[in-house]
Design brief:
- There is one protein chain.
- The protein is an alpha/beta fold.
- It has one domain: Nucleoside phosphorylase domain (Rossmann fold).
- Strands 1, 2, 5, 6, 7, 8, 9, 10, 11, 12 and 13 form an eleven-stranded mixed β-sheet that branches.
- The chain is globular and about 50 Å long.
Length: 250
C-alpha cells in the first residue's frame, strides 16, 4: 500500500484534510521524531503528517530534529514525501502570495545533519543530488495548479540558510548573483536526507515577502501571518489534488 508523508510548514500544521487521525510517538536512532506525527486516511491511502515547527510554531529551524523526522518516515515505509514551507523572494517576478515548486537547491546551512547511513552503517554510500526533487511529484503538483487555475512558478532554486534570522543585504545580493530564486531555512537539509533514504521528495513553498536585497521591504510578522492565512486553502488544494494523483492506480 502506498504511504505518503507531508511535512507541513507554517500555516500547514494540522492535518485537517485527513480522517481517522491519530497521534503517533516514534523513536529513532536519532531521537524522537516530531514533536508529533499524525497518522490518518485520505481516500483510503495512509498519510502521515509532521508539523515541522510543532503545532504552535515553537520549534525554530535550528532546533528541528531533521534526521529523526526523515528516518521516522523511512521506518513507516513512506513511498513519497511532500513538503510545504514559506520563503523570501530573491527575484522581482516572484511576488508575495505566490507558490513555487522547487527544482534545485543551494545548501548554506552549517548543521551537520546528513550522513544517516554513515552513522548507522559506516561505509561508502555516495548519494547523487544532481536532480534532488522528484519529477513525478513535481509533475503532480504542476498539474494540480493547472487544473485548479492556481498561478505558480513551476521551477525555482532555493537557498537554505541557518535560522532564525534574515540574510544581510550583502548576502541577499550575492545569492541573487548565484541565480537563487527564493530563500528559506528548512528545504536543506530535508531534501538531502530524503535522497539519502531514497524517498522521493517534492517541495512546495509560499513566498511571504521579498528578501533583504529589496530596500524598504522588511517582512513584518503581521504581514507574514496574513499572507500565510490567505493562502492556506490554496496550499491544501494543491496538496489534496496531488494526493489524489498519487493514489490513482498506475
Amino acid at each position: 500500500m502506498i504511504k505518503t508523508a507531508i511535512i507541513g510548514g507554517r500555516g500547514n500544521e494540522l492535518p485537517d484534510y485527513l480522517t481517522d487521525v491519530k497521534e503517533l510517538t516514534l523513536d529513532t536512532p536519532f531521537g524522537k521524531a516530531g514533536p508529533v506525527i499524525y497518522s490518518g486516511k485520505f481516500n483510503g491511502m495512509e498519510v502521515y503528517h509532521i508539523p515541522r515547527h510543532g503545532a504552535d510554531q515553537a520549534i525554530t529551524p535550528a532546533k528541528i530534529n531533521y534526521r529523526a523526522n526523515l528516518y521516522a518516515l523511512k521506518q513507516l515505509d513512506c513511498s513519497y514525501i511532500l513538503s510545504t514551507s514559506t520563503c523570501g523572494s530573491l527575484q522581482e517576478e516572484i511576488c508575495p502570495g505566490e507558490c513555487i515548486i522547487l527544482d534545485q537547491f543551494i545548501d548554506m546551512t552549517k548543521q551537520q545533519v546528513s550522513g544517516i547511513h554513515e552513522e548507522l552503517a559506516p561505509g561508502e554510500r555516495y548519494v547523487s543530488l544532481a536532480e534532488p526533487f522528484s519529477e513525478e511529484l513535481r509533475d503532480h503538483l504542476i498539474e494540480s495548479a493547472i487544473v485548479q487555475g492556481i498561478t505558480i512558478h513551476t521551477k525555482g532554486i532555493v537557498i537554505s540558510i541557518d535560522g532564525f534570522r534574515s540574510s544581510s543585504r550583502a548576502e541577499s545580493n550575492l545569492y541573487r548573483k548565484w541565480g537563487a530564486d527564493v530563500i528559506n531555512m528548512t528545504t536543506a537539509p530535508e531534501v538531502i536526507l530524503a535522497n539519502e533514504l531514497n524517498i522521493p521528495y517534492a517541495a512546495l513553498t509560499l513566498c511571504i515577502g521579498y528578501d533583504s536585497w529589496r530596500t524598504g521591504e522588511a517582512m513584518q510578522a503581521e504581514q507574514i501571518k496574513a499572507i500565510v492565512a490567505e493562502n492556506r486553502d490554496k496550499i491544501n488544494r494543491l496538496l489534496i489534488y496531488t494526493l489524489q494523483k498519487i493514489g490513482q492506480p498506475s
